[in-house]
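HUMAN: I'm a chemist; might I ask for a sequence paired with its structure tokens?

ASSISTANT:
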Amino acid sequence: MVDGDQAVFARFRFRVIGGLVPGATYTVTYPFGVKTFVASATGTINFTDDQGCTATPPACDFTSVLTTTNAGPFLAWDATAPAPPAGFIGDPKVDHAITGSPFGTNFMRIDGPDVGGPGVNTVQQNLFAVTGKKFNGVGQAALVIDRTSYSRTAAGVMEVDLMVHAAKNGAVTAGAVGFPNTTLTRDAVSGRYVARVPRKDPAAVLPAFIRYTATAPKSAATVRDAQLVDEVTVTSATYSLSSHLLTVNAVSSDQVVPPTLVAAGSVNEPLGALTNGFLSVSLVAPPYQVNVTSSAGGKRGLRVDLIP
């Protein structure tokens, strides 16, 4: 995930799919308040209230979630047996009575005409599915994987490149089956880490994934796997306004087992496979950018250059 693309929000969603009296008013009392709804012409209610950062850009202001009014504070299982698993506020597989409503309404009740069937104008549920783990005071070590790629040439040179972001005062190691455990070099100013690992046999089977382990003081270790992919370079993408030809040139960093390269304008705009790193397609109008994907996992884009 790219820094700045994160989103976080609090959601209240209430749905009744059919069975209500069309046009009738229904009152919902729940742990965080009271809301009224009018059933639609088909006897349904479909309501969602999202507060916080629901989409980016701009980058999310995480403090905006602290003032949401549609949900919160956290609910938890009450003291009746069974107790929740150690370190958790509940178990979503087990419906259980709760506590935590700021209004003392630790239940869900719907009042309205025939809400529970003909002549039944009130239904109530006191059991909830609750999930959540208590914070133990120890955070996870930061780790953002930027690049996990390889290159190998017909001349017998093979290298694996590892690049991540992590805590500025931490450490990052990487390894895999048949791959040496490697400690990445840290830049304590930026939090960037890097390693280039030479391999002796370019024809050897590559690991499918590299496993990273990030550690930092007063933090729990973070372990993540990243697919090992080739590097794709799109050397040119041009569209001739006179001939209406889109021409794409691209190359993979794997010269020993050349992968298949496929070009597209987007997911819904396939252009075709490249032959020997070349593709020419007749188009009335070109995509603004060409994206080339390798069967070895790599991908790269380049904006199309308009030429006479």
The mean pLDDT is 93. The CA atoms of residues 245 and 282 lie 5 Å apart. DSSP finds no helices and 28 strands in the chain.
